[in-house]
Amino acid sequence: MRLQLQSSKINKVRFHFIMVACLLVSLCVGMLPARAAESGEAQAAGQAVQDVYQQLQAGKRLRPESTYVTPEQPTVYLTFDDGPSKLTNQVLDILDKEDVKATFFVLGEQAKSHPNELKRIVKDGHAIGNHTYNHVYKELYSDFQTFWMQISRTEDMIDDIVGIRPQLVRAPGGTATNFDANYYYLMEQAGYIVHDWNVDSGDSKRANVPVNEIWQTVKASPLEHEINILFHDGTGHDSSVEVLPKVISYYKQLGYAFAPLTDKVKPKQFSITKPKWSRTMSLKHFQDLLGQTQAYATAHPSAAEIARREAEQLLAQKAKAEAEEKAIAKQKAEAEAARQAALPLQVHVQGGGTFSIESSHYQLQANRIELPLRYLIEKMGGSVEWQPDTRSAVAHYGIYDMDYDLTNRSIHLFTLGRPVASYYLADMTMQNSQIIVPLRKTIDLLGGRVTDAVMDANSREVSLALRPFFYWKENNSLVPTTLFAMGY
C-alpha cells in the first residue's frame, strides 16, 4: 500500500512537471514571432548602415534632401573666419556704416577670449557659424571623432556666451583635400550645413597680404548670382579690414545685395578629392559615430527642424480642432434632426377640426409624409380590415372603400360598393406588419386634396380639403356631411 501511495505521488509530480514544461515551451514558442520580427528589423537596419558605409568608403557623396531659396537679386555673402579678435569690432563698425549683414565663422578658443565681440556680432544681426575650436589641421583631419568633438566644444562655448547653437559650419582650410564622404555625411546627419566659398579674397595666403593684392584678387574673381566670399577677421588681418569698404562699394555698384548665410542658402561646397590625411574608418567606428551624430540631431534640432515640427504641430492642432468642430456640428445636427423628427404632425381639415399625428406614427421622406394606412384611416374615423389569405387590406371611409392588394401592388377604389377605379404599381410598402402609404396620394384617392403643407424646423402642418359624402343616419335620412362634421 505504501509503495502504491509513493508511486501515485511520483506520478502526480511528474504530471505537474510535464504541464509546467509544456506551458514554458508554449510561451517561448509564442514569443518567437515577435523576437523574429525584431531580429528581422534589426538585421535590415544593420544592412542599411552597411550599405551606406560601403558607398561612403567608395567615395560616393550621399547628399540629404534639402530645399534652398535662390534670391531674386544677385547676392554677396560676406564671411569672416578665425575670429573674433580685436579686429572684429572694426569690421562690425564698417558693416554697420554700410548697412550690410555678414556671417562670422568663429573659433571656440577665440570666442572664449573675446566674448563681448561675439555678443556684438549677434546683437548687430549678423549670423554665427562654427569654425571648430583650435583650427589645428592635424588634429581635425586625422579622425572625424576629433573634428566632431571640436565642433561640439565650440558650439557649447557659443551657446554659453550668446545662447545660439550654430547650424552653419566651415572647415578650417576648406573641405578640399580635408573632407571625405564620411565627414560630409556624418556632419549632415548631425544637422549641420557645411559652407566653403566661391570667392577667396586671398587675405590668408601669407602674413600681412597687401591691401591692393586683396583688392585685385577680389576684382578678378568671376561674378555669379550668389557669391560666398572668404575673408578673415582674426589677428594679423588688418588689410582685410582696410579693403572691406572698397569691396562692399564694388559689389553694390554691380547691383549686388548683401545678406547673411541661412539654412535656406544653398551652400558652396568643393568637390571631394583625395584627402591629404592618412586615415581609415572601420564599420564599427562608423556605426558609433553615426549613432552619436544622429542622437545629437535629435537632441538639438535645427531652426528649420524646429519650424517644421511646429508647423506639423500646428497642422495637427488645426486638424484636431476641425475634427472637434465637425463632431460638435454633427452632434448638433443629429440633435436638431432628432428634435425635428419628434415634432407631431398637425392635420387641419377644411370645415372640420384638427387632429395630431405623433412622430412615431409618420415619417418624412424628401418632404413626403408616409404613415400606416390603418392609423390614418382610423384617425380619420374609418376602419381597415386585413385579409391574410389574399394579403390585402380594405379601408372603409364613409361611402368609399379602398382595396390594397400587396401581392399585385394595386389599389381598387369603390364608391357605395361599386368599382370606380384601379391603380397599379401603387405606392405602398409593408413595414413591421403595417402597410405604409403616402398621405397626399391617399387623400387624393378619397376625393380630397392637400391644400397646404408646412414642413420647417419648428412645425409640421398639413391642411386637407375632403369631399363631402352621404352618411346613412339612424333615422334613414340622407344628409350631406364630412368626416369632421360628424365629430371625428
Automatic annotation (TrEMBL):
Protein name: Polysaccharide deacetylase family protein
Coiled coil region boundaries: 304-341
Domain NodB homology residue range list: 74-259
Record GO biological process: carbohydrate metabolic process
UniProt key word Signal: yes
KW Oxidoreductase (keyword) present: no
A GO MF label: hydrolase activity, acting on carbon-nitrogen (but not peptide) bonds
Naturally occurring in which organism (per UniProt): Paenibacillus roseopurpureus
